[in-house]
Amino acid sequence: MAETKIKHPSVEERAAKGKDRREKTPVSSHTGWAPAPDRPDPVALLEEQNLTREQDLVPVRHGRMLVSPFTFYRGAAKIMATDLKDTPRAGLKAQLCGDAHLSNFGVFASPERNLLFDLNDFDETLPGPFEYDVKRMAASFTIAARNNEFTKAEAHDVTLSAVRAYREAMKDFSRMGTMDIWYAHLSEQELMSAIETAASSEIGKAQKKAVERVEKRTKKSALKAHTRDSLQALSKLGELVDGQYRIVSQPPIVIPVRELAATYGMSGDEVEKTVREQLRAYRATLPDDRRLLLERFEVIDVARKVVGVGSVGTRAFIALLQGRDQEDPLFLQVKEATRSVLEDHLPKSKFKQPGERVVRGQRMMQAASDIFLGWTKGAQDNRYLYWRQLRDMKGSAVIEEMKPFDMTSYARVCGWTLARAHARSGDPIAIGAYLGKSDKFDHSITDFSERYADQNEHDYQAFSDAVRSGRLEAIAGV
């Protein structure tokens, strides 16, 4: 097999590439966005996505998206991917999250048991134009700010802060050594420091109270995350029956496989056999040390569990495993991986197995990943899965409760985090040179975000009309 020659351009050449792309695709070209004349019906795109989903859960997905334009946006990654294909691109690629909205950032435990803040959802990950993630993130802040009834100026400033943080962080990464970028992360202590730094320029009694509120809320969220582990999950999701733990039935959110056998056309024994075969296949994708560790646990029960907004309807399960005894549980989450919505318009993934695509992308972008992150083919044709721990000190911000200062602080942290994720796989020197030293890129993307937020509201209205007319079925409050 021929060896691929890897090029190593100089710092000057990499910077020149970024500046050249800036000439060909000016940062100002991201302003003035308007929907394409032949833009597809957004409702039809959702219907297309629903075809391969669990049909009894599709109305639940619609019900969650129906809550507000903000929740609609969370489930509309496919719609935005279609819009992004027609937007300007500098030709500078990175591993994309693919769905980098502000609710897909959060805290979780590193393998060393330290709390980290990072991106935490990679269902749509794929290599592509770095601008896609920046625009998805920035627009989410505009939409969330409107949802929280911020003024137009406040929403503008929140979004601008997110993009500015991305640009400034990328410039910092462009000056760092390769290994320093790889090891860069945002720990619990650094998260608190970032909040204090963001507030250092603020003065006045009102600002001081805002800082104290954000610090208090962040500490409370971190403390809650520390309690979220498999033992805590067992108290919420398990029940003791005849001396043996099992997953409690909570339809339609949690349905144990003992009640789902008819849905998948298999008997109880067949379901149990399939689960064990799946576990063996999944273990084979883990490094030897992690596989040996997992082999010390046995499967006790499995259930279907509805998750998120955009993921509702894809197959998702939880598996209860047991180690030395009943007080040593391990919950794994098993999620279906489908084609990335970005693959409709970008080169297809080099990984034939979508579960591997998700896992490889996550490992590339995160500062540290779950020790049990792996993948397998599903039991049925054209079904693919990836596995990870269900609760491992995971936590997320409550966006709907944020005030302008809170969201601005959060925007800065998310912007830095996205830049760090892109710097690991992309070229931070070229991207940094493209972004430039001025705030032109910041204002350009903020302009895009405001225009896209307007379009999102129109799409939400069309979606709501489709539910009211009976074209789509929705179940609210689930």
- Kindly, what is the distance between the CA atoms of the first and last residues, rounded to a whole number of angstroms? 54 Å
SSE class: alpha+beta
What are the secondary-structure elements, in order, as H or E?
A: HHHHHEEEEHHHEHHHEEEHHEEEHEEHHH
Task: Walk across the major sheet and give the strand order.
Answer: 8-9-10-11-13-12
Strand content: 5-15%
Average pLDDT value?
Answer: 91
Main pleated sheet? 6 strands, antiparallel
Rg, rounded, reads 23 Å
Contiguous helical run count: 17
Total beta strand runs: 13
Could you say which overall geometry the principal axes of the C-alpha atoms support? globular
Residue stretches low in confidence (pLDDT < 50, at least 5 long) are: none
Helix content: 40-55%
Give your account of this protein's structure.
The chain has helices spanning 11-24, 42-50, 58-65, 69-74, 77-84, 130-147, 152-174, 178-183, 188-199, 205-227, 230-237, 268-283, 288-294, 354-365, 404-425, 428-435, 440-469, and strands at residues 93-96, 105-109, 115-119, 126-129, 186-187, 238-241, 244-247, 254-256, 298-305, 316-322, 329-336, 374-377, 384-389. With 478 residues, the protein is an alpha+beta fold. The protein folds into two domains: 11-30 and 37-228 and 399-469, no CATH class; 230-389, no CATH class. The strands form four sheets. A six-stranded antiparallel β-sheet has the order 8-9-10-11-13-12, with helices on both faces. α6 packs antiparallel against α7 and α7 packs across α16 (428-435). It is globular.
